[in-house]
Design goal:
FAD/NAD(P)-binding domain; Enolase-like, domain 1; 7-stranded mixed sheet; 7-stranded antiparallel sheet; 13 helices; globular; disordered N terminus; disordered C terminus; binds NADPH dihydro-nicotinamide-adenine-dinucleotide phosphate
């Protein structure tokens, strides 16, 4: 990873005049579009290629806007909004609302969602056009360090040369290799099903699994969630994971920890699902939410010298430069932190480095994220378990678990939890997490504070907004526990 960065004119490509473009971007997703636009703003002549877009079909995974806009974050969040109304209708009763029979029209939501995606696809195309970027429809293949061949659907192939090439082809859903796996869908299809499932079985317990469990449950489906670990969301703070599990159950999702699926069989009544515990269930939809793989197929990378790592991701240095000096890569295809805003950051840093005359490394410290289950989980910085491994001295843990004010009237039995992890020596807050309503909206501001190096004392001296859940972050005065870092054990105060 610590290869020398290429500075234009040193030992790499020169004389941009001899190329069709200064930059050729393969893949118009979050990272690619950002890099194309910001490079053009620095005066580069830029082209970007992307497969054509079909708003309803999941067969062709193309479309300007990429996974986030077309079949990821945006449509998913629209469905989360749709699903969240169920709880709101329930909660409204004790606030005096008499809503009568509530019906949900999936087709209407689907049409509105598709219309919004088509609109955003157009917005992204206009953004590119207004930045002076040439959009080419087709599949890109790298032929040599300065040439890309673009194949259109009709078979036409055109060759373009560029001083630099940027790979921003993202990732795609992967399926686990069990018998009958072709009967399962992935999130690509899950976003555009003809009907809401009556009984959905989900394999996995990462972001996509718990988000779709909440979506389908909110829309009235019976949902069974199967996963290998004792708790969902491996990698997040254990205390938060336990609360997410409790909340999912509280919302009616049936959890099956430490259970895998072993076989899917098509029957007249649906898909028969066999578990590794020997149980059998019948479902109309089985979703594999078992991770994503970098999208490198057909790019001809290894032939031109672009190395991949063991996970199949493009190897890059701190400046997103691959093992071929004129070829860079950003976003999920590099498998660093696979989140849209991170791909945007990497795209911006790329253009500053290559065309802005200011070598800039992406900064992966304090990247906040959110899981849009209902209620959501959001975190920034270290979990308690990560802090235990990484911190040099003791860490201080402050937690607050409470019944949100709204629940006191609605009667919903669902607690909100917040946690701050503090370096005992410096008093700096090194991790924050929350599971509860509006957690992602609250965490964005907390992320700014952590990035600025805020101390617990500064949190405590900040005046709260009352009454709000967010104010708990500045009123956690009582230490929950002091923990000796380096796995040396715990000291409960
Ligand atoms: P994740 O990597 O988050 O989770 C994968 C899940 O699948 C884990 O629970 C994992 O279990 C399980 N799994 C993997 N292999 C197997 C197997 N062979 N058998 C059984 N279970 C298996 O992947 P997702 O698909 O949920 O999401 C992909 C990526 O997309 C995320 O990492 C994230 O970067 C991004 N994303 C972000 C969102 C957001 O920001 N809100 C929303 C959706 C996606 P185990 O833990 O046991 O390994």
């Amino acid at each position: 990873m610590a290869r020398k960065m290429l500075i234009d004119g040193e030992d790499g490509p020169k004389e941009s005049e001899k190329y069709d473009f200064d930059l050729f971007v393969i893949g118009a997703g979050s990272g690619g579009v950002r890099a194309a636009r910001t490079s053009a703003a620095f005066g580069a002549k830029v082209a970007i290629c992307e497969l054509p877009f079909s708003p309803v079909s999941s067969e062709n995974l193309g479309g300007v806007g990429g996974t986030c806009v077309i079949r990821g974050c945006v449509p998913k969040k629209i469905l989360v909004y749709g699903a969240s109304f169920r709880g709101e209708f329930e909660d409204s009763r004790n606030f005096g609302w008499e809503t009568g029979e509530v019906n949900f029209n999936w087709k209407k939501l689907l049409e509105n969602k598709t219309r919004e995606i088509v609109r955003l696809n157009g917005v992204y195309k206009r953004l590119l056009a207004n930045s002076g970027v040439t959009l080419l429809e087709g599949k890109g293949k790298i032929v040599d360090p300065h040439q890309v061949e673009v194949a259109q659907n009709d078979g036409t192939k055109t060759m373009y040369s560029a001083k630099y090439i940027l790979i921003g082809t993202g990732s795609r859903a992967s399926r686990v290799p069990i018998s009958g796996k072709e009967l399962a869908i992935t999130s690509d299809e899950a976003l555009s099903l003809d009907e809401v499932p009556k009984h959905a079985i989900i394999l996995g317990a990462g972001y996509i699994a718990v988000e779709f469990a909440s979506i389908w449950r909110g829309m009235g489906a019976t949902v069974d969630l199967f996963y290998r670990k004792d708790l969902p969301l491996r990698g997040f703070d254990d205390e938060m994971r336990a609360v997410v599990a409790k909340n999912l159950e509280g919302r009616g999702i049936r959890l099956h920890p430490e259970t895998n699926l072993s076989e899917l069989v098509k029957t007249e009544n649906g898909i028969k699902v066999r578990t590794d515990h020997g149980d059998e269930l019948l479902a109309d939809v089985v979703l594999f939410a078992t991770g994503r793989k970098p999208n490198t197929e057909g790019l001809n990378l290894e032939a031109v010298g672009v190395q991949l790592d063991n996970a199949g991701a493009v190897k890059v240095n701190e400046y997103s430069q691959t093992t071929v000096p004129s070829i860079y890569a950003v976003g999920d295809v590099t498998n660093r932190i696979n989140l849209t805003p991170v791909a945007l950051m990497e795209g911006t840093c790329f253009s500053k480095t290559v065309f802005g005359g200011k070598p800039t490394m992406p900064d992966y410290k304090f990247v906040p994220c959110a899981v849009f289950c209902v209620p959501p989980l959001s975190v920034v910085g270290l979990s308690e378990q990560e802090a235990l491994k990484q911190a040099n001295g003791d860490i201080l843990v402050f937690t607050s678990t409470f019944n949100p004010m709204k629940n006191t009237i609605s009667g919903r039995q669902e607690r909100t939890i917040m946690k701050l992890v503090v370096d005992a020596e410096t008093d700096k807050v090194i991790g924050a997490s929350m599971c509860g309503p509006d957690a992602p909206e609250i965490m964005q501001g907390i992320a700014v504070a952590l990035k600025c190096g805020a101390t617990k004392e500064q949190f405590d001296s900040t005046v709260g907004i009352h009454p709000s859940a967010a104010e708990e972050f500045v009123t956690m005065r009582t230490l929950t526990r002091r923990v000796a870092a380096g796995g040396k054990g715990k000291t409960n105060l």
